[in-house]
Amino acid sequence: MASTPMDLDDAPSTTITPTLNITRNSNPTPAMVSTVTEVIPNFRPTKLFTRDDVKEGRPQPHILSIDFDNAGDLCMTSESDETIQIYNVKEGRHDKTLFSKKYGVKLAKFTHTASTIIYASTKENHAIRYLSAHDNTFLRYFEGHEGSVTDLSMHPGSDDFISCSADNTVCLWNIQTKQYTGKLFLNSPTLSAWDPSGTTFAIALPPSGNILLYDYKSYHKGPFSTFDVLKARGPAEAEAAFKGWTKLEFSNDGKHILVGSRGAGHFLLDAFEGSLKAFLRKPNGSTRRLAPGEYDNGTVESSGECCFSPDGRYVLSGGKSDIAVWDTLAVPDTNKVLSPTHILEEKREAAVVQYNPRYNMLATGDQELLFWLPDPHA
Question: What confidence score (pLDDT) does residue 163 get?
Answer without folding.
Answer: 98
